[in-house]
Structure formats: C-alpha cells, structure tokens
Design goal:
Order of helices and strands: EHEHEHEHHEHEEHEEEEEHHH
Helix content: 25-40%
Shape: globular
Bound molecules: S-adenosylmethionine
Radius of gyration: 19 Å
Number of helices: 10
CATH architecture: Alpha-Beta Barrel
Number of domains: 1
Oligomer: single chain
Largest sheet: 12 strands, mixed
Length: 323
C-alpha cells in the first residue's frame, strides 16, 4: 500500500467502536458526542475481511482502539480472528484499561501481543477530573494485569496539557522506574481537534524537564514499534515523545486508520471517502474492495498543517478516530 509520496503502509489502527466508558477532556467536548447506531459499526466479520484484503497488500500490524475497544462485546473474538489472518504479525490494543484487570489474560490468550494504556496523571482526583469520572485504581489494576499477562512492553501514554498535568512529567517517570524493564512511558503533545481545549507543551520542553531530573537523555537507536514516537533513555527508563505539532513526522507516516463506521482515514487532518463498510455492503468482491483501499491510500495528503500555536486543527473527534 504505497502512496503518491512513496510511503509504505504496513500498520492499521482499527477503531472498533466510538463508545467509551469515560469522557476525557482532551478527547471529547463537555456535552459529549452522539454515538453511532450499532448497525453503522463495522461487524467483526467486516473488519476481519478488510484486514485480510489489506494483509495481501502488505499490512503486517494491527492495533485495536476506539472509543474504548474493551467495551465492545467479545473483543477477544476479533483478536482471535485477526490472529488467524496470513501476514498479520502483531496485534495490539490501546485502552484506558478500566476493564483490563478482568480482560488482559483472555485477550493475551486470544493472541493480543502488546498493550498501550492511556494514563494522564497519577493523582486520583485529577484523574477523575480529566476523564470526567474515571477510576485511577481500576486502571492501575489493569496495568498490573497486563504485566501478569506479559503484554510487553507496556506503553503508557500521557497526553500533556499545560496547567492540567504538565507538573507530572517528571513524577510520572519516577513512578515507573521500578518497572523500567517492561514499561515505556510516552509523552504525547495534545492535539487540537475542532476546538483547542488545552494548551500544548512542545516535546523539546518536556525533554528539558526530564533532563533536569535524569541528566542528559540518550537517544534510543533501535525502532520500538515503528510508529511516530522518538525514544530516549531517562536513566533506566525508556521514554518516548509523540510530537505531531512541534516535530511533524508526516514524511515517515506509515499509518492508516479504519474508523468504526468503515471510513479509512489516511491522515488525522483529512477525511477520506468512501466508507469501506458501504463498499462491502454494496456487494463488492475482494478485488474491488482492494482497489478502493489502494485508491484511498494513493490519495493520502503529504501531511497536516497543525502547529503548537495557530496552524490548522485536526478533523473529527478523537473518540471516533481512535488516536
Ligand atoms: N479509549 C482508548 C484509550 O483511552 O486509550 C483508546 C482511544 S483514545 C482516543 C486513544 C489515544 O488518544 C489515547 O492515548 C488518548 O490519550 C489520545 N488522545 C485523545 N485525545 C487526544 C488529543 N486531543 N491529543 C492527543 N492525544 C489524544
């Protein structure tokens, strides 16, 4: 799956639902969003078919996301079905981990290899505020269950928002030092979607704050997952920075996003049509489905124009896209 700019696409994020069990302030507007009617969601069979067709065109890695992927019923059935597809080498999940204490082992048994957990703060009260009702203790139990199920490395994603949680950049790293062997902490620049609800902290400033605690960070040369994060060592802990605003990585973007309603997004700043769900439900065979995917990938824009200040916003709502 090659685009006009020579980028090869081997990685797909699949949003399995736009529903979520929390309502984070970086992700959703205060008033919430209208969820899609269930019949508009891709079925597991439809997702597996799209992945199978993409696997014949070079797809190798799939990440399940949402909304919250663990709230979709029998999600381990989808993991199992994707694991049976020739060519798919890696299945992972991005989750808020609220339900993971009871689900991690079953998902690992079904073939899940790795987990990314969203964790913006270690203060229970602040956590409840940022997530509008989330339970930090449940998430920490979910992370423990991920360790027990050996879903390594466990990547923890902290979206950094100035004046909300940026005072925890260093303490978050300190907290996970005892688990440095199997944990990677990733700092993500807050991205403005439609509205700019929070102020951004550029990655370079985050690194400077960590250097105040750990001394010079040393760059990690080996690729850790092949995504957009740039990794460094802070003492024994590996830390990553995803900086879509201050350090654009569009030139090497290898990601595609399948939304819960079947739209294949090639870029966070660009809505693509048609929906693959509509193509499938119109009776298309695999050849036509494959051609549609190829055409959408070919149309991928060179990049986005979002910036730390000003610039353009990303399009859509994060909970519908899946991060
Ligand atoms: N519910 C799952 C979770 O919480 O991990 C998966 C979906 S969530 C939309 C995926 C990721 O997007 C999370 O790590 C979340 O923190 C991140 N995210 C949400 N809104 C964001 C924003 N405005 N800027 C940057 N990251 C964002």
């Amino acid at each position: 799956m090659l685009d006009r700019w020579g980028r090869l696409h081997t990685y797909l994020r699949v949003s399995v639902t736009d529903r979520c069990n929390v309502r984070c302030t970086d992700c959703l507007p205060e008033e919430g969003v209208q969820y899609m009617p269930r019949k508009e969601l891709l079925s597991y069979e439809e997702i597996a078919r799209i992945v199978r067709v993409m696997a014949t065109m070079g797809l190798r890695r799939v990440r399940l996301t949402g909304g919250e992927p663990t709230v979709r019923r029998d999600i381990e059935d989808l993991v199992r079905a994707l694991g049976r597809i020739d060519g798919i080498e890696d299945i992972s999940i991005t989750t808020n981990a609220h339900r993971f204490a009871s689900q991690a082992q079953a998902l690992a048994t079904a073939g899940l290899r790795r987990v990314n957990v969203s964790l913006d703060t270690l203060d229970a009260e602040r956590f409840a505020k940022i997530t509008r009702g989330g339970d930090l203790a449940a998430v920490l139990k979910g992370i423990e269950a991920s360790r027990a199920a050996r879903l390594f490395p466990i990547k923890l994603n902290m979206v950094v928002m100035r004046g909300v949680n940026d005072d925890e950049i260093v303490s978050m790293a300190r907290h996970f030092l005892p688990h440095a062997e199997h944990t990677v902490l990733r700092y993500i620049e807050y991205m403005p979607f439609e509205n700019r609800w929070h102020e951004n902290v550029p990655a370079r400033e985050m690194r400077a704050r960590l250097e105040g605690e750990f001394g010079a960070l040393t760059p990690v040369e080996e690729s850790l997952g092949g995504g957009p994060a740039r990794y460094w060592r802070a003492g024994p802990l590996t830390v990553g920075f995803i900086a879509p605003l201050s350090e654009h990585f569009c030139a090497t973007c290898n990601r595609l996003r399948l939304l819960a309603d079947g739209h294949l997004r090639t870029c966070l700043a660009h809505e693509d049509t048609p929906s693959l769900r509509d193509v499938i439900r119109s009776g298309a065979d695999d050849a036509r489905l494959g051609q549609t995917i190829r055409d959408i990938v070919r149309g991928k824009p060179a990049g986005h124009e979002a910036a730390v200040e000003g610039g353009r916003h990303f399009e859509g709502v994060m909970t519908g896209i899946g991060g």
